[in-house]
Amino acid sequence: MALIIHAGKQNKNVYKALIAAEYVGVEVKMVDSFEMGVSNKSPEFLKMNPIGKVPVLETPDGPVFESNAIARYVAHGSFLFGSSPIEYGQIEQWIDFSSFELDINLRGWFIPRMGYAPYIKPAEEGYIAGVKRGLDALNTHLASHTFLVGDSVTLADIITTCNLIFGFRFLLTKSFTSAYPHVERYFWTMINQPNFSKITGEVTQAEVTIPIASAKKPEAKKAEPKKEVKKEEAPKPIPEATEEEEAPKPKAKNPLDLLPPSKMVLDDWKRLYSNTKSNFREVAIKGFWDMYDPEGYSLWFCDYKYNDENMVSFVTMNKVGGFLQRMDLCRKYAFGKMLIIGNEPPFKVKGLWLFRGTEIPKFVLDECYDMELYEWTKVDLSDEAQKERVSQMIEDHEPFEGEALLDAKCFK
Ligand SMILES: N[C@@H](CCC(=O)N[C@@H](CS)C(=O)NCC(=O)O)C(=O)O
């Protein structure tokens, strides 16, 4: 019997186990039909979880409820628990941290706004302060760590990211999260890992904090006690739908597809770049300038704005790697080179990008948050020095501007 999750699929608590399953190669299925408020109140369900909440995992040996416990069961005995007792301890530490410092405060902020609990402003302020305190601590840790524990994804990253997904989707706007740049970098890097994005689909950050839709003020005590005494109402269950995310919408045609045709075919250039193994300057660079079409494309230099933060080589490389992953959305329309420069920290990050169209595409600026971490300058083609700089960036010329290259990454 396969492992079966009882819940709707679009719920960050379900993502935890499904993402862990992708990493460890365990098969986990969703129950065929699940109706929130009905299925989870049935006698069979209550036998599996007496509190009637989702998710529940059905296993050949019995049920497991509580989403963290389900994810732990799926990941049992795997590398997702680290490779030493201290790593194991720290993984559990961050799982608890993300549950008790982040998730509790995020839910406390969210639930009254949805009208599932009375809205009390000072209480909300307390939850927001709790979220800020948690994010601040996380940000400090992530300033010098790519992952929460060790050098690869663990269950701590999976559970923390799922809790953050909920926050980013509904509460944490860009102006809120920009105070925590390392958390932002970490979050977007994680959700762009194929094992995450396969489960979560596209994640977009809230443009506004979810409004107080049907907030109820706490009822003032009534002076006249004459009313019929009503049976105390059971607390309203919080439907799973509150955390349910919208199904991916069909995409509109990209405006770049509507531009007049160009003599430069991006795939031809990418092929030439990849296939040129020798005489790079004479073959690939010359070929590039021969085919370059300034009416259909534009070239841009980018300079990382916070180079003094780049103190750890692998963190810097991972940061740039994450940027390139997030640029996946414009693979059809762009080519890029990113250089990590210097022998010693702080490392400089500089790049060159070729975009379809004469401006940086708007959807890239809107959707890839890394764009604002760089200073962008359009290449002036009438300046031979700038053209030479373009050529050197494409060919990973070393030394580059007098310095050694730590790494050079290509987006193609
Ligand atoms: N701590 C639990 C929380 C589960 C939970 O709150 N589930 C909600 C949906 S997101 C639910 O089942 N609500 C229905 C109810 O309260 O009756 C976990 O992580 O699994």
Provide a concise account of the structure shown.
With 412 residues, the chain is an alpha+beta fold. It has helices at 12-24, 43-48, 67-75, 85-113, 121-142, 155-170, 174-177, 181-191, 194-200, 266-275, 280-291, 313-326, 362-367, 384-394, and strands spanning 3-6, 28-30, 56-59, 62-65, 297-304, 334-341, 348-356, 374-378, 405-411. Helix 5 (121-142) crosses helix 8 (181-191).
What order do the helices and strands come in, and which of them pair?
Layout lengths: L2 E4 L5 H13 L3 E3 L12 H6 L7 E4 L2 E4 L1 H9 L9 H29 L7 H22 L12 H16 L3 H4 L3 H11 L2 H7 L65 H10 L4 H12 L5 E8 L8 H14 L7 E8 L6 E9 L5 H6 L6 E5 L5 H11 L10 E7 L1
Parallel strand pairs: 1-2
Antiparallel strand pairs: 1-3, 3-4, 5-7, 5-8, 6-7, 6-9
Helix pairs in contact: 1-3, 1-6, 1-9, 4-5, 4-6, 5-8
Bound molecules: glutathione.
